[in-house]
Design goal:
Elements (H helix, E strand, L loop, with lengths): L7 E3 L10 H41 L19 H20 L24 H8 L12 H6 L39 H5 L9 E3 L4 E2 L22 H20 L9 E3 L4
Antiparallel strand pairs: 1-4, 2-3
Length: about 270
């Protein structure tokens, strides 16, 4: 029942009210997932086209197309083209996704696990910052769904979900430009927590002798994270990890709400 005495409504917003950062980022995350879903749809379409082409090659030319996806059984002659194509789509798609895993996508997410159980290596960062100038904070990497949900660590809207960096010095926006310490240390991403600079030539010429590498801005590939490079683990694992983090992001968005609690707004005019 409506209450004519109240001068407000719940959940309404003035037409010219600005969107909050949380609202904006939630919308962008949904758009980015739509972009990835379209990419996955194209991969599935490619798998169907390849499977159909291979089957037609077998039947019309009488030869086995090369290379056949690993583990693909030869269909019996009595199987229809449609049935043979459907049977070949799954292994073909798996092979395409493994190949696709070596390429960088437009939307990047951290391929690791939860960040809070992550232990940091025994590196005396506070002692070393005057030497290394915290140059690890100038390296680029992707955030996780956990970081995005917390809403503390900022990311680059133009390059989702890379850590947000300053134009003035190339450092992470959360880095103190004077002391070079992290100002959101308790919320730092998993990559920051697990990163070990001791054998990274971008940071040290010789860690044991405390000889830092030359500090050259722009020397780091903005699309390579601190921890995982394409050569660090095989493409099958990378494809599986990518699928897992995208599923995690989809679930997180699906389980989120646009409003955290009841909120008063203006009463709409009749």
């Amino acid at each position: 029942m409506a209450d004519p005495e109240t001068d407000h409504a719940y959940g309404t917003t003035a037409p010219d009210a600005p969107a909050t950062r949380a609202e904006l980022e939630r919308a962008i995350r949904n758009l980015n997932m739509s972009d990835l879903e379209q990419r996955d749809t194209l991969l599935k379409l490619a798998a169907r086209v390849i499977a159909l082409t291979d089957e037609l090659t077998r039947r019309l030319d009488g030869v086995e197309p090369l290379p056949a996806p690993p583990g693909t059984p030869a269909p019996p002659p009595s199987m229809t083209i449609e049935a043979a194509t459907e049977a070949a789509i799954e292994p073909t798609l798996a092979a395409i996704r493994v190949n696709d895993a070596q390429f960088v996508t437009r939307v990047l997410l951290d391929l690791g696990g939860p960040k809070y159980p992550t232990e940091s290596p025994p590196i005396p960062c506070a002692e070393l910052i005057p030497l290394c100038h915290a140059r690890c904070c100038a390296l680029s990497f992707a955030l996780s769904t956990e970081d995005l949900d917390e809403g503390v660590i900022r990311w680059d809207y133009g390059q989702p979900y890379l850590i947000r960096q300053r134009e003035s010095d190339g450092y992470c926006v959360h880095n103190d430009p004077e002391a070079r310490g992290c100002t959101v240390h308790a919320f730092r991403p998993r990559v920051c927590r697990s990163y070990d600079c001791r054998n990274d030539a971008r940071v040290w010429i010789d860690y044991e002798q405390r000889i830092p590498a030359p500090l050259v801005r722009g020397q780091v590939d903005a699309r390579v994270d601190l921890e995982r490079r394409p050569s660090d683990f095989d493409l099958v694992e990378r494809a599986r990890a990518r699928a897992a983090v995208l599923a995690r992001e989809t679930v997180a968005l699906g389980e989120s709400y646009a409003e955290a609690a009841p909120r008063k707004g203006p009463k709409p005019s009749p």
